[in-house]
Design a protein that fits this description.
6-stranded parallel β-sheet; 518 residues; Rossmann fold; 17% strand; alpha/beta; thiamine pyrophosphate; 3 domains; globular; 7-stranded mixed β-sheet
C-alpha cells in the first residue's frame, strides 16, 4: 500500500466520504487511490474557488466535513477566497494539498512555493506529512481538527513522494471521528443574565449568531422574549438561518451603519448568543465602527463553541419562560405576478415560491438587501449567507448544499457581478445533476460599489470610475453562459415571466438558471 491509499482509507474510516477536487500532477497518486478504493464521492470543480466553496456549503448542511483536493500552493491560493468565507462561517473542511516530491523542492521548479505559508492565514490547522508511515495518522488528525466545535479549516500537505511510496498494510480501522461536543456555559453567567432580563427586559436585546439561529435554539429565544419582553435579532450574516412559517421570526441586524446604530440605540443591554459584538462591515468617515452605543452593556451568554441551544434553554428556565414562543404565520395572500421587476416585487413573489424545506443561498447583494423582510413568512426553509464577505460564494455553496442534502430544493440568489467569480460551478451542477435553481439578478453593474462610493465620501464617479463599477460593455449573456456550461436557462423581463420560470425550474428536479433583467 502507498501513502495516497493510506490517506484515502484514513479519511473514509474517519467519516469523510466526499471530496471536492481540482487535482494536478502532484496529486495523481491520490487520484489513483480514490479510483481504486470504493466509498469516496469525488466531485470535480473547474476552479479551486468552486471546490472550497462547495466544501463550505456541504458542511453547512451536513454538519460534518468534506475533503478538498488542491494542486500545490497556486491551486490552494486560487481557493483561498472561499476558504476565507468558510473560516468565517466556522465550516469544517479537510484540505488535501499536494506538494512537490521532497527532493524536488531544492530545484525551485516553477510551481514551488511555501504551501504552508499560503495555507496558514485561512486555516486553523496546517501540517505537512513528514514520512509515508505517518500519512494515515495525519489524515485522521486533520479530520479531528476539522470536526472541532465550531468547525475548523484543516490543511494537510501531502508531498508527492509520500503519496507514491509503499510502506505496508492498510491502517487499522478506528471508526469515524466524532464531532466535538460543545462546551457547556457557565451557570453563574446564565443566572446573572436572567437577573438582567427580569429587571430590564424591554431594554435588552438577545443577539443571536451561529448555532443560535437554528430552529431549536431560536424557539428558546422566542420563549425568553415572550416571558421578559426582550427583543431578539440575529447578525446580518449567518451561516444557516431557520426561517419561515411556523418558526420564531428572526429579524436580521441591518447592514447599513446608520440603520443599525439607530436600531441598537434603544437597548441598554445586549446579550450575545453565539454572536460577536456588532460592528460595521467597513470603516466610513465620521461614522462609528461599533454599532452599539458607548454606554451599552454587553453580556456573553455563549460562544459558538458552547452548547448554544442548551444555554438558551437554561436561560429560559432561569427566567420562567414557560409561554410558547410566537411563530410566523403562514402567508395568506398570493403575491402579484403582474408588473415590473423590482427588489420589492421579486421578494414578495419569492415568498410564495420558496418550496418547503428549501435551502436558499443568498448572494443577491444590492437587489436582495430587502428580501429578509418580505420572505419571512414563506414556507419553512433555511437561508445561507456569506460570512466572510468575499464574493463568488453562492454558486459553489449551492453545489455543496445540494450534494449534502439531495432531498432538498436549493435556490441560489446571486448578482451578476458576484456570479462571474465562480460561474464554473454551473458546470459541476450539470455534471452532478444537482437540483439547484440559480437566479441571476442582472443589473449589469457593481451596484453595491456604486453605493459604497458615495458612502465613503468619494464624491461623484467620473468616466473612469464608472467604468470600474459597471459590467455592461459588453453586457453579460447569462443564458448563453449557462447553456455553455450544460445548464438550461431562460431570461425574464417581468414578474409574470419570472413566476413561470421559477415554477418550471423548481419542478424540473435538476439544475437551471433564470436571468432576471433589472
Amino acid at each position: 500500500m502507498n501513502g495516497a491509499e493510506a490517506l484515502v482509507h484514513s479519511l473514509l474510516d474517519a467519516g469523510v466520504d466526499t471530496c471536492f477536487a481540482n487535482p494536478g500532477t502532484s496529486e495523481m497518486h491520490f487520484v489513483a487511490a480514490l479510483d481504486r478504493i470504493a466509498g469516496m464521492r469525488c466531485v470535480l470543480g473547474l476552479f479551486e474557488g468552486v471546490v472550497t466553496g462547495a466544501a463550505d456549503g456541504y458542511y453547512r448542511l451536513a454538519d460534518r466535513p468534506a475533503a478538498t483536493l488542491l494542486h500545490l500552493g497556486p491551486g490552494l491560493a486560487n481557493g483561498l477566497a472561499n476558504l476565507h468565507n468558510a473560516k468565517k462561517a466556522h465550516s469544517g473542511i479537510v484540505n488535501v494539498v499536494g506538494e512537490h516530491a521532497t527532493a524536488h523542492l531544492e530545484l525551485d521548479a516553477p510551481l514551488t512555493s511555501d504551501v504552508e505559508g499560503v495555507a496558514r492565514p485561512m486555516s486553523h490547522w496546517v501540517h505537512t506529512v513528514e514520512s509515508v508511515d505517518k500519512v494515515a495518522n495525519a489524515g485522521r488528525a486533520a479530520v479531528s481538527a476539522a470536526s472541532a466545535r465550531p468547525g475548523q479549516i484543516a490543511s494537510l500537505i501531502l508531498p508527492a513522494d509520500k503519496a507514491w511510496s509503499e510502506f505496508g498494510d492498510a491502517p487499522a480501522a478506528q471508526g469515524a471521528v466524532m464531532t466535538a461536543a460543545p462546551d457547556a456555559v457557565d451557570a453563574e453567567s446564565v443566572l446573572s443574565i436572567a437577573k438582567t432580563l427580569r429587571s430590564s427586559g424591554k431594554s435588552t436585546l438577545l443577539l443571536l449568531g451561529g448555532p443560535a439561529v437554528r430552529e431549536g435554539a431560536a424557539q428558546w429565544a422566542g420563549r425568553i422574549a415572550a416571558a421578559t419582553g426582550c427583543a431578539v435579532m440575529c447578525e446580518f450574516y449567518a451561516e444557516r438561518i431557520s426561517r419561515g412559517a411556523g418558526r420564531f421570526p428572526l429579524p436580521r441586524l441591518p447592514y447599513s451603519v446608520d440603520a443599525a446604530v439607530q436600531k441598537l440605540a434603544a437597548f441598554e443591554h445586549i446579550v450575545l448568543v453565539g454572536a460577536m459584538p456588532p460592528v460595521a462591515f467597513f470603516a466610513y468617515p465620521n461614522k462609528p465602527g461599533r454599532l452599539y452605543s458607548p454606554g451599552t452593556n454587553l453580556h456573553r451568554l455563549a460562544h459558538r463553541g458552547n452548547d448554544v441551544e442548551g444555554a438558551l434553554r437554561m436561560l429560559a428556565e432561569a427566567t420562567d419562560a414557560t409561554r410558547t414562543a410566537f411563530v410566523t404565520p403562514s402567508r395568506r395572500q398570493a403575491a402579484d405576478t403582474e408588473g415590473p421587476l423590482t427588489p420589492a416585487s421579486i421578494g414578495a413573489l419569492l415568498a410564495t415560491l420558496i418550496p418547503e424545506n428549501a435551502v436558499v443561498v443568498d448572494e443577491a447583494v444590492s437587489t436582495g438587501r430587502g428580501f429578509d423582510g418580505v420572505t419571512h413568512d414563506a414556507a419553512p426553509h433555511e437561508w445561507l449567507t456569506t460570512m466572510g464577505g468575499s464574493i463568488g460564494y453562492a454558486l459553489p455553496v449551492a453545489v455543496g448544499a445540494a450534494i449534502a442534502a439531495p432531498e432538498r430544493k436549493v435556490v441560489a440568489l446571486v448578482g451578476d457581478g458576484s456570479a462571474m467569480y465562480t460561474l464554473q460551478a454551473l458546470w459541476t451542477m450539470a455534471r452532478e445533476g444537482l437540483d439547484v435553481t440559480t437566479v441571476i439578478f442582472a443589473n449589469r453593474t457593481y451596484q453595491i460599489l456604486r453605493g459604497e462610493f458615495a458612502n465613503v465620501g468619494a464624491g461623484e464617479p467620473g468616466a473612469r470610475a464608472t467604468d470600474m463599477l459597471t459590467i455592461d460593455r459588453p453586457a453579460l449573456d447569462w443564458v448563453s453562459l449557462a447553456r455553455g456550461h450544460g445548464v438550461g436557462a431562460t431570461r425574464v423581463t417581468n414578474l409574470a415571466e419570472f413566476a413561470a420560470a421559477m415554477r418550471s425550474s423548481l419542478a424540473s428536479g435538476g439544475p437551471s438558471l433564470i436571468e432576471v433583467i433589472l
